[in-house]
Design goal:
Blueprint lengths: L26 H12 L10 H12 L22 H17 L4 E7 L2 E6 L4 H10 L7 E9 L7 E9 L4 E9 L4 E3 L8 H12 L2 E3 L28 E6 L4 E6 L44
Protein name: NADH:ubiquinone oxidoreductase 30kDa subunit domain-containing protein
Main location: mitochondrion
Family: Belongs to the complex I 30 kDa subunit family.
């Protein structure tokens, strides 16, 4: 894990490991970082046991531990396969952090994936740097996705997935936003971000500032709510059906109510009892047949 200048924007969370002010990167350091990025896709075999141990150690310490970013890293039985790649990505991540100390707050490496963590105000400068810098050349945005964490103060993560065709590498950039916060639009940097941001607005309600046409793209006109939020009801709010009499699609209030959902990891079946077999009610016991009536003379 590498961190940048503590004078950069910290917003509402503290950084894990603020470092001292970085020095200017030399040309040789840039060349080394470029070679490291190029070598990521080669999957070269590990040369020595010491190198494997060093790479495994760096991979286990690459967890983004500062709130709101918490990347859970599970035990990986094939970590040796990515050992050399992980070490090279750490070198490249450190290079990017030293190039942009005011914008990159931290970075993490998991297997062959490099992730940068930035504040919302750094979206345009960081994406522009990654697109234009000679050692980056991430010219394509492959996707912009949202992640909802209802328990966080800043409940949304906005994730940018970039591709460098020149160096055959990928990088992920993450930022955060609350329900009432705006994230700067990336359309001025990547024209392909237009529909991706509209999708994030439609499904999550993440507002992108200075977007040229921020409106729904997947749901219907007049749709209420944002369907990929964790608190959105599974049944929705309205029922859509085709009316034979009106000869058109109609929207009606939903009649089927949904029970309250909580997001705890406990099993919902623990509340139904211990599973013992219930006793049969007395009224369900077999009734004896009536006695025959006597015949009157």
């Amino acid at each position: 894990m590498a961190a940048a200048n503590p004078e950069r924007e910290q917003d509402w969370f503290t950084l894990s490991n603020p470092a001292s002010s970085p020095s200017k990167m030399s040309f040789r350091a840039g060349v080394r970082a470029t070679r490291a990025l190029r070598a990521v896709s080669l999957r070269a075999p590990v040369s020595s046991t010491a190198q494997v141990a060093r790479a495994i150690h760096s991979s286990s310490a690459s967890k983004a531990s500062a709130s709101p970013f918490a990347e859970a890293t599970s035990p990986n039985p094939t970590v040796t396969q990515y050992a050399e790649t992980t070490e090279k990505l750490h070198t490249y991540g450190s290079y990017l952090t030293q190039c942009l100390p005011k914008f990159i707050q931290q970075f993490s490496v998991l297997k062959d994936e490099l992730t940068l963590y930035i504040a919302p105000s750094a979206v345009v400068p960081v994406l522009t740097f990654l697109r234009d810098h000679q050692q980056c050349q991430f010219k394509q945005v492959m996707d912009i996705s949202g992640v909802d964490f209802p328990e966080r103060e800043k409940r949304f993560e906005v994730v940018y997935h970039l591709l460098s065709v020149k160096y055959a590498g990928r990088i992920r950039v993450k930022t955060y936003a609350g329900e009432a916060d705006a994230v700067p639009s990336a359309v001025e940097v990547f024209r392909g971000a237009d529909w991706y941001e509209r999708e994030a607005w439609d499904l999550f309600g993440i507002f992108f500032e200075n977007h040229p046409d921020l409106r729904r793209i997947l749901t219907d006109y007049g749709f209420e709510g944002h369907p990929l939020r964790k608190d959105f009801p599974l049944t929705g709010y309205t029922e859509v059906r085709y009316d034979e009499e009106r000869k058109r699609v109609v929207y009606e209030p939903l009649q089927l109510t949904q029970a309250f959902r909580n997001f705890e990891s406990l099993s919902p079946w623990e509340q139904v009892g211990d599973g013992t077999k219930g006793k049969r009610p007395d009224e369900l016991k077999r009734v004896p047949p009536p006695k025959p009536e006597e015949v009157k003379k």
